[in-house]
Each structure stands twice: as structure tokens, then as C-alpha cells.
Amino acid sequence: MANKSIKKFAKIDLEELVRKSETLLANIQFASIDEPVKTVLITSTGPDEGKSTTALALATAMAKAGKRTLIMDCDMRRRSQGKLLGVHPAAGVYSVLSGRAPLKKAVAKTNIPNLYLLDCEPNIANPASVLASQRFAALLRALSRSFDYVVVDTPPIGTFVDAAVAAALVDGVALVVRQRVSKKQAVADALAQLKAADARILGLVMTFVPQEKSDYYCYYNEENRRVKKKHSDGESTTLQQTPAEEMDLGLDEDDMQAWARRIGVSAEDLQEAPKAPVRHAGHAATPNASAKKASSSFAPGSFKG
What's this model's pTM, rounded to 2 decimal places? Predict the structure, then answer.
């Protein structure tokens, strides 16, 4: 199965997808005028719809635009970002959340300038509970202070609840829909689930669009209007699997300051910043003057790839 996945990834023209994803990035930047969008969650209605590839293409477009960008693989059921990038750090999301590894050890440089990866370990028990923990929310806040953008890859929302849990913690969500595969009712159910989670839905990304139309995908904004843009390796290590009996490590323990010291971030970076009101499709944005976040003592430039 692993070999099949690698062959599948090798066939992807990432450069072309990055050019297409510039449309999505432009719309995210437009949505950021009144409400800052620094953390973006990518999910889909079901498996094999191009979700992870879309997440990587968007993150790469952000990095190529000169923005320090982190792609965070939170699809703990079927991780793929490490394979796509050819990078596998020695520690992942769960190691950081459990306090076993400092954040700068888990965040790895990639071969793409300005792009970093925070991978996840395999076979994590109860991923939804991990994403719902106080520590995960605090970690996401710290990362948003350290990077210009954080792109979060999650499992399909139509299959698992993980994406809905994490959607409430990010600045915006893009839903990936595969043409001629995703069912209309599945898309409607996914949108309803995101709205129930108080997620800010940025739009829909349609993938596998015939080449004469858009090569790979097109973007639908909050008003459900199609947006189309015209065009004129190093060594890696393997994440260690966490034994099932060691999974319950109290991710919601009260001593957040002690955990912050163990992972190498300041306690201030874990504190929740005032957040702008949630905006769904068709709702007007509300400016939030206090949304600007302080700089972090956790410096991306100190990572060793």
C-alpha cells in the first residue's frame, strides 16, 4: 500500500497545482482584510478527493509568496504530508502535545523555502479527543504567532468528526469537493457540520476538474460563485509509533506552563487572543482591532532541517 501511495504522489504535478492554488490564496487574503486568516483548515467530504494535495499546494503557494508557512498534518488516520514532501521528522504532533519533544525538534524544514512541516505519528488512539484537548488549542495559538500561515490537513469531515472539532479553532476552513465523485447531499451535510461547529467557511475547492476547464481544481467563494484565474532532498527519519498503553497522558492537565517549558514556547504564546465574530457565507465581516498577535519567542529561523 505504501508503494502505491508513493507512485500516486509522484504523478502529481505540484508546480501546476501551486499555480492554480494562487487563486485560493488570493481569496484567503481578500477575506483577511477585516478578519485575519492565519490558520486554514483543509478537509473534504470523503476520501480520495485531493484534500491533502490541495493543502500542500496552498501551503506551497503561501511559502512562494514569501510567507513563513507551516503545514500541519493532523490526519492522524491517514497521514500523507511527509510522503508528499519527502520529509519525516523524528517527532510529531502527539510528541509535542505529550511533552515528549520540544516544538523545534518536531517542526522540520522542507526543500521548499519558507515551508515547514509538523507531521503526525501513526496509529494515534482517539484522534478527535487529541484535537479537542486544551493543549492542541494552545499549540495552534503558539504556531499562529510563529508563522505567517498555518495550513492544517485533517481527515474528511464526512467520515470522521476530527475536522469539525478542529474547525472551531482555526481562522477559516476550505472544503474540498471532487467533481463527479462527491455527492450533493454529502457536501450539504459537510457544510452543515462545519456551521454547527461555528467554523468560518472560506469556500469550496473543486478538484479533478477536466483539463480544458481548470486542469485540477477551481474555487467557489462564500457566495457560491466560481473563481477562475487566468494564466498569461535530504535524509529523513521515521516517527516512532506510540504504544496504545501510553496514549492517555493528560492532554488537558492544568499545568500548562510546565508543558510550555517542556516544548520550548512561552506561556504567553499559549494564551487565547480575542477573536473576531464567526462569519458564515453571506454574513458581513466585523473588524477586530485587537486581532494582531504578538511575536513569539519560538523562532522558525532556529529550526534545523
Answer: 0.72
